[in-house]
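Example 9 (inverse folding). The structure is encoded as follows.
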């Protein structure tokens, strides 16, 4: 059976670690130098729950509250990873603006989203608590993961969660329930 094609957009404020997360996931290395991304696409085969996927990750240019949401990000995408830095209140505000713009453009009430709080290695500079991130993800009915691209903590979880969210949205996976024995 051919691999399922999945296209995922990485979005968030500038310098929250979108590129670092992708490069860590695809190439297994942390790139410390920061060159603002214009837009890059990375592809990686993934096997999850005995299904093969060909995942195309689109690393978008950093968004801010004033950037127009590019219409091309509403087409042909299966899911969205919205990234903020746990050390930046501004990036947490921006991710909420991106979410609102995303729903407006896509025209759906629910799209597969994983909210990512990146840079957990900088815990002494933390401004956004894990609870705040979880609350926002629950409000959006999105998955939530805290990561450190630098230390490769929970990086692959982001993309596993994303694929699971996409499959759920497509009706291929059961909804997560709090009930263990239903």
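The amino acid assigned to each position is listed next.
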């Amino acid at each position: 059976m051919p691999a399922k094609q999945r296209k995922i957009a990485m979005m968030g404020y500038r310098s929250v670690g979108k590129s670092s997360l992708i490069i860590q996931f695809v190439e297994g290395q942390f790139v410390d130098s920061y060159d603002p991304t214009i837009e890059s696409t990375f592809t990686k085969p993934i096997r999850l729950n005995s299904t093969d996927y060909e995942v195309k990750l689109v690393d978008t240019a950093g968004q801010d509250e004033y950037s127009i949401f590019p219409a091309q990000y509403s087409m042909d995408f299966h899911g969205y990873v919205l990234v903020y830095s746990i050390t930046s209140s501004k990036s947490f505000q921006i991710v909420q603006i991106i979410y609102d713009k995303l729903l407006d453009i896509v025209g759906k009430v629910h799209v597969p989203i994983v909210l990512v709080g990146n840079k957990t290695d900088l815990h002494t500079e933390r401004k956004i608590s894990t609870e705040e991130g979880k609350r926002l993800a629950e409000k959006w009915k999105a998955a939530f993961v805290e990561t450190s691209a630098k230390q490769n903590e929970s990086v692959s979880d982001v993309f596993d969660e994303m694929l699971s969210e996409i499959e759920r949205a497509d009706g291929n996976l059961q909804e997560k329930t709090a009930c263990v024995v239903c």
